[in-house]
Each structure stands twice: as structure tokens, then as C-alpha cells.
Amino acid sequence: MKTRKPSARSSSPSSSSSPSVSPHYATTLTQQQTLPLFSNMVRKSSLFKQTLIATLVFLLAIYALFTIFFHTPLPPSDPSSDDDDVEISSRDNLNFPLKQIDGSGIAKKVKVFMYDLPHKFTYGIIQQHGLARGGSPVADVTSLKYPGHQHMHEWFLFSDLVRPESDRLGSPIVKVTDPEEADLFYIPVFSSLSLIVNAGRPPGSGSGYSDEQMQEELVEWLKRQEYWKRNNGWDNVIIAGDPNALYRVVDRVKNAVLLVADFGRLRQDQGSLVKDVIIPYSHRISAYTGDFGVKERKTLLFFMGNRYRKEGGKIRDLLFQILENDEDVVIKHGTQSRENRRAASHGMHTSKFCLNPAGDTPSACRLFDSIVSLCVPVIVSDSIELPFEDIIDYKKFSVFVETAAALKPGYLVSLLRKVPAEKIIEYQKAMKEVKRYYDYTHPNGTVNEIWRQVSQKLALIKLMINRDKRLVKKDLSEPNCCCLCSNQTGIISSLR
């Protein structure tokens, strides 16, 4: 029987009996199998690119449409404009601009008109002051010299506006002679000098001058003025530097911007930081011109002034009792006189710290004497308001001590002895940087800063004028204080 050979079909692929294939045929077969796969990949890649491009084109079209129809372009910049120019923004189109803007987009200076007051409210008061001290009448009162005292700010502001405009370069305001052009109206009454014409003289020994009568006559004169009546006094500015100046009529002029040393004599509905301007006393002692340092300042704490005051100033007598026997402390009773001013100048120039307690009201001229002396002020007055605090940080050169703490025996002296010399020198440098703000004779000093502060009130003044037109007049049983009030309850922290 013959044995049948197994079929190649039934044998294993790895079997040696498998039919052989030539290399050329194998290569051709592989290429034929790969081509359809590669062709599919090329078609898919091309479709992806087309989709991606179409998507990008669509997004760009949407962005272009949004830019054209919804985006507001910025106004073109003027390459010739200065960095200090004020750019006009959309809010400048409001009826109540935050700044005065002219057609070029640059902030304009506020225009101030000074009333031509009858001489009895200005130079006539200087004459009355002289007559009460034995002087003789003069034919031309405008030749009289204003007497020196701590409330000379009224004279310096008056003198500034009397000068030709060409001499007022650098001033933050413009003086105008046509009231129709003015934004604000200045009333240059010598209210503080009027207050002291007969000061310290018994009834009947003076010139017959009456400060109260002057105040009443001033109000009557104002009531006849078109530019007072037009806006009920809101756009007028009046100075009452002495806390008691215009005390009789302040309720009738309180709408005006008041230039005051503090709010000690004013009710909350009469004066506030929002409406009014705190101004510095005119310093009465010579400024210190030496170098920084503590070597020549042998005294730790110095005070020279009236020991006995009313109201908040009663703290002075208590501080005298606590401090007068302390080592390195000089505390003396003294009133205003040329000799006492010389003694005070020497004392402040040779002391590290100068005590500044409250007077009859929260402020006193001694603070500003201290600053120009580079004698670090130690302020013990819980309700004090300070001038120019939008640009001056008093904590950089002053020590604030709460009244209750200052009256603890030994506390104040102990506190000051801990201050290192380096810190005192740091205070002195800070005082030197700002002392021009307390110099009424400096070309860019106190006068310019007061006018800058006044000009900043213009927006609020316009608000009050417009508001006043629509308010219903009411008889109130209590004063209405609808703005920020002065510091009556604030706590002053001590040196840390």
C-alpha cells in the first residue's frame, strides 16, 4: 500500500515544506499593502488643516466685527503735551467737573476776585489799633504798617492779592479784577486785628472802637453785594484766624469758606474740614538756621507761654505742676513781648523737644514756632486739627501724647528720654523739608498753600450752590451737620 504525502495546504506555515517566494515579489506585495493606508492618512491630514484654517478665519472675522461695532477707540495723544497736563476723560463732560478744564484739556487755575472793602474793615482797623496805643491819625491810612502778631495771616493774604498779577508767578490761583470772571470771592477783613484793638484795656481807656460793631457793619455791607447774594455766600472766602474772630456774626457768614486756625469756637454746623481750611498761625520767633543734631540741644523739653488758660487750656497749669521740677525740663510762664520772644527763640533752638499743649482752643502758635526751630513738637491736645494734612504727615516729625497719659507723673519725661538721637535727627530733617509751609514770607510758602487748599474746595462749592437751590427751607430745632465734622472724639496715640 502506498503512503500518501501530506498536502502543503495542511502543513504548518513555518514548515520547511512551505512554497518559496522571490524577494522582488515580496517587496512589491508590501508596497501594495502600504499605499492604501498612507493615502488615507494624507486625506485626513488635509481635512484637519482645512478645518483649522476655517476656524481661525471665523474667529478673526468675529474679532473684527466686535472691534468695529463695540470698541470705543482711545483719543489720540498729543506728543507736545507736558506730563503735568490733565487729560480730559469722559467724566469731564459732566456738569460737575472735578477740575476746571479749559479747551486744551489743561487744568485751569481758580480765579479769585477780592472785594474792594471800605477801609474801615482793613486799613482803618490798623489805624484804630494804633490810636488805642497812643498813636495819631494819618491822612492816608494805606501807608500804615500792619502790626506784628500771631494772626498776621490776614495781612499776608490781603497783600498777595493787592500785588500786580505779574508779581504773583507760581501762585495756584489767578487774581481777577472783573467779578464776572471769578470762581471765588475773597473778603479781606482784618477780623483778628479788630478783635485785639482794645485787648487788655479797661472800658473807656481805648479809642472808642468796637469790634462787635465792625462785625455787624461787615455783614450789612455783604448783604448788599451782588456776588454775596447770588449764591448765598457759598462761593465767598472769609478769614477768621483768631478762634474768637467774627464770633458775633459767624452764623450769618458760615456758608462761606472759613479760613480758621481750628474749630474750637465753632459748632459742627458752622465749620468742618470739608468746607473750610485750617491755616497755620504766623510764627513769631526766628527760624533756626543751624545744622541737624542734638549736641547743642542740652534741654530735653521746653515750654514758654501763658500758664493759665481757659477750657482745654487748663491742662497747662496741670503740666506745670508735674514738669517744673524735672531735670532737663524748662517750663516757664510768659506772655507776648519782644523780650519773651527772644527768650523763647533761644529756648526752642537749644531744646530737643518743645511742649505744645492746647490753649483756650485746641491749637496754639507755639506748634509752628517749634517747627521752624527744628524742635520736635510734643502735642498734647486731643481735639487739634492741623493745616495741610493732605500733603503733610505730622507723625513724621511730631510726638502726639494723649492728655490723660501726659498727666501721669513721670510719663512724659520717661517717654521722651527713650527717643534715640538718631530718631530726633530724623524728626529734624522731616521738619526742615516742610517748614516753608509755615512761612508766610516764603515765595512758595504758606500763602500759596492756603490758596491751593481754597481752590480745592471749588467742586464742593458748586455742589452746595446747586443743592441749595432745590432744598426746602426748614426751621430745625438742632443744627444740621451734613458733612464731615472736626475731630471731637478721636484718640491720639502716643509715640511708639
TrEMBL record:
Family stated for the protein in its record: Belongs to the glycosyltransferase 47 family.
Highest taxon of the lineage: Eukaryota
Transmembrane among keywords: yes
Keyword Hydrolase in annotation: no
Residues covered by the Exostosin GT47 domain: 108-414
GO annotations of cellular component type: Golgi membrane
Compositional bias per record (Low complexity), positions renumbered to this chain: 8-25
Membrane-spanning ranges: 51-70
Segments of this protein annotated with the region Disordered: 1-25
Membrane topology of this protein: Single-pass type II membrane protein
One Gene Ontology molecular-function label: glycosyltransferase activity
InterPro entries assigned: Exostosin (IPR004263), Exostosin_GT47 (IPR040911)
UniProt keyword terms in alphabetical order: Glycosyltransferase, Golgi apparatus, Membrane, Signal-anchor, Transferase, Transmembrane, Transmembrane helix
Protein name, as recorded: Probable arabinosyltransferase ARAD1
Gene name of the encoded protein: LOC111308535
Subcellular location: Golgi apparatus membrane
